[in-house]
Amino acid sequence: MIRVALPAHLRTLARVSGEVQLDIAGGATQRTLLDALEARHPMLRGTIRDHVTKQRRAFVRFFACGEDLSHAPPDTPLPDAVAAGAEPFVVLGAMAGG
Amino acid sequence: MSGVRLLVGTRKGAFVLTSDARRDRWDVSGPLFAGWEIYHMKGSPADPSRLYASQSTGWFGQLIQRSSDGGKTWEPVGNEFVYEGIAGTHQWYDGTPHPWEFARVWHLEPSQRDPDTVYAGVEDAALFRSSDGAKTWQELPGLRGHGSGPSWAPGAGGMCLHTILLHPSNPNRIIIAISAAGAFRSDDAGKTWRPINRGLRSEQIPNPTAEVGHCVHRIAMHRSRPDVLFMQKHWDVMRSDDAGESWREVSGNLPSDFGFPIEVHAHEPETLYVVPIKSDSEHYPPDGKLRVYRSRTGGNEWEALTKGLPQRDCYVNVLRDATAVDSLDPCGVYFGTTGGQVYASADAGDSWAPIVRDLPAVMSVEVQTLP
After folding, report:
1. How many Cβ pairs within 8 Å bridge chains A and B?
2. Which residues contact B270 (CB under 8 A, 6 or more apart)?
3. Which residues of A touch B82 (CB under 8 A)?
4. What fold does the segment set B3-370 form as a domain?
5. How far is A23 from chain B (nearest CA, A)?
6. A contact set with B (CB within 8 A)
7. pLDDT tier, B1 (very low <50, low <70, confident <90, very high otherwise)
8. How far is CA B165 from the centre of its chain?
């Protein structure tokens, strides 16, 4: 079970409170996590990554275990603590705008 | 008793303002979609309970929201806007080719007949259509592909398709406008397009009378006379009596012919409204006086409408989609400002009063006249 922490706007959109919990078969990566998240909550499609290219939106960031994973290749295995559910995978809006 | 419902899009959410036909007491609800930019909301003429809203942020991109109960509840629908075929390039600010990139939906125009059919004008400029209640969107690629697309360039606000006029009786005719490319018309339901900018003159482009490149800010049409079009251009208020084949200037005695919105009275097709702005570099009313100008002669002769509007120290703007008229009698006229005020006139502009004063910057105002 993987824990995903969404920013407030996306929690509202997905109509969830607190963290989202996902079961992902096999080795979890950014790509499989986001695939599972979008399958569970289709309204999030296009808000975190592009519909077609699957590239992360410019002002969205991925943090976990005190590290910025935003620039990691999408097929990189997630940290063990995230895969084990000990730490959340954090999706957040970057500090931008005003 | 009949009434009106104003759909107000702001920089930080949407608001719904409702009143009975007297239009002197208003109920304000919102914000909906709090914290998001609402470029536009509009109801279906075929089913007033069906509403569409364009919701976006720089962080999380574009969403389209749909309501089937007059705005009580909403659901996110399709937000996948993919250009048809190879997206190609348009001209960037520095003159170099720039790939077409979807940024946001500026304007939603529901069909006159079918609540599930809705058009979307987007940045980078293109026209999309949905025929399944906004679940899926398809581009009408003949617009970008008609030939002049590579020479289009963005205005300061982005290269947006902001005006969509659907002919009231001829479903094949669609007129759109793009900043900064100009006006275009299709007579085959959006398959093919051609520029309709003859008579426009823009000193800000190398050839002031070029076929494309004009920064059209808004076009308005009265349903009873769909061949008569009124345009607020970057500078100049223009009129066409032949569905855009030719244009002539009708700025007349306006204190400035720069501005964004233009509107036509619901029952008097020769009565127009504009909100003059000082200049392209100073986006606020001349002399700090917020004045709506009305022409009862189809242009050229304009009168200032000031009663109830601030006549000193006012430096707000009124954006292109932020005016509307209802179809009650007398005609109600509405506009929202970048200062967060929404003003209403229940007497065709003779007098005004604010409905609200302190919303986020208003981006769009639409009105529904309810039975």
Report:
1. 46
2. B295, B296, B297, B298
3. 51-52
4. Methylamine Dehydrogenase; Chain H (2.130.10)
5. 24
6. 7-10, 12-13, 43, 45-48, 51-52, 57, 59-60, 93-94, 96-97
7. low
8. 10
Determine the Cα–Cα distance for residues B261 and B276; give it in Å rounded to an integer: 9
Chain B residues with CB under 8 Å of A46 CB are 61-63, 79-80
Which of A43, A52, A94 is opposite residue B82, by nearest beta carbon?
A52
The answer to whether position A98 is within a domain reads no
Is residue A19 one of the residues assigned to a domain? yes
- Residues A32-41: pLDDT tens digits? 999 999 999 9
d(CA A48, nearest CA chain B) in Å: 6
Q: Per residue in B287-332, pLDDT tens?
A: 999 999 999 999 999 999 999 999 999 999 999 999 999 999 999 9
Sorted by where each begins, the domain ranges of chain B are: 3-370
Among candidate residues B305, B284, B311, B280, the one with its CA nearest the CA of residue B293:
B305
Give the model confidence (pLDDT) of B239-249 as tens digits: 999 999 999 99
Tokens 């005020």 map to which residue? Answer: B341
Residue B201 to residue A26: CA distance in whole angstroms: 64
**How sure is the predictor about A24, in pLDDT bands with cuts at 50, 70 and 90?**
very high
Q: What is the 3-state secondary structure (H, E, C) of B207-275?
A: CCCCCCCCCEEEEEECCCCCCCEEEEECECEEEECCCCCCCEECCCCCCCCECCCEEECCCCCCCEEEC
- Residue-number span of the structural domain to which A73 is assigned: 2-93
In this structure, are strands A89-93 and A2-5 parallel, antiparallel, or unpaired? parallel
